[in-house]
Design goal:
43% of the residues lie in helices and 18% in strands. The protein is α/β, with parallel strands linked by helices. The protein is globular and about 55 Å long.
């Protein structure tokens, strides 16, 4: 399977074993209730994968540390890349890791910045099998307290949503970059259910279950909801053909932001966009601009 072919398949479909998809289909037909519980467990379980070749240089040349985040009583693994008083926080997406934005980190390092990134709980080298967006948010806030203030925050996918929420909650930074960032949690659950070969009925039951489990309407964490209160200069980057997070999310977030710029790319998908030279140049230029 070529890289271009992979970009046309949602990452959840790429990583999930076939037997899980088969189980999902059977449960959907037999019991939407049981299917929704099965889906919720899958939804909160990141998929781990072998470290890609493109991330090995960053993994080898970073200072790594395992830290406990007291507010959630979970461990994260941090990556410090380069040495500078100008620090930038990188926040990976679901089933990603602290080296996922390696090409961006390398470019920033060459421009005189130090990047701080992390493996969220249940991701990369961090302990645990379960994770969720509130864990990402708490990790961002924790790292801001420990290493901030950051010159900029760069978030990919769920990492972008989490960064928006942290800034809404009071985190200060000079610039924010959102790449392939999702907006509506209800839409995320529908897409997830579809990728797992389940239907909208199961998605609705799963969303209701998650709302009850975490004692809040998960849509309150949606990207556009947080963006309404974010005044930080923001660059939103999204690919027209992103099959993991549809382009409408970028437009919806951009529409409600007071100070944002939108860059729409073509044929880079949800993951290759992180290594595209034009995208990286746009990011470094946006951060450096006064």
């Amino acid at each position: 399977m070529t890289q271009n072919t992979k970009e046309n398949i949602p990452v959840q479909r790429l990583l999930v074993p076939q037997y899980i998809l088969t189980t999902s289909q059977i449960l959907t037909k037999v019991s939407p209730f049981l299917a929704s519980r099965f889906a919720a467990k899958l939804f909160l379980t990141p998929f781990r994968y072998k470290l890609p070749e493109r991330e090995k240089e960053m993994d080898k040349n970073t200072v790594q540390e395992t830290l406990l985040v007291p507010s959630m009583n979970r461990e994260i693994v941090t990556y410090s890349y380069g040495s500078s008083s100008k620090k930038i926080l990188l926040v990976h997406g679901w089933s990603g890791r602290g080296t996922q934005l390696a090409k961006i980190a390398s470019a920033l390092k060459s421009k005189g910045y130090q990047t701080i990134s992390f493996d969220a709980p249940g991701h990369g080298k961090a302990a645990g099998k379960m994770s969720m967006m509130p864990f990402f948010i708490e990790a961002v806030k924790f790292l801001d307290d420990k290493y901030g203030p950051f010159e900029a925050v760069i978030g990919h996918s769920l990492g972008g949503m989490s960064s928006l929420r942290a800034i809404k909650d009071g985190m200060k930074t000079n610039k924010l970059i959102l790449i392939g960032t999702a907006n509506n949690v209800t839409e995320i659950t529908k897409n997830f259910a579809s990728n797992m070969k389940m239907n909208d009925k199961v998605a609705k039951k799963m969303k209701a279950y998650l709302d009850g489990k975490f004692k809040q309407d998960m849509d309150s964490l949606s990207g556009a909801e947080s963006a309404k209160e974010v005044r930080t200069p923001t660059l939103i980057i999204h690919d027209e053909h992103d099959v993991d997070v549809e382009i409408n999310s970028a437009y919806e977030i951009h529409e409600v932001m007071e100070n944002s710029e939108l860059m729409v790319t073509q044929n880079l998908g949800h993951r290759r966009i992180l290594g595209n030279p034009e995208v990286i140049n746009k990011i470094t230029g946006f951060i450096a601009a006064q």
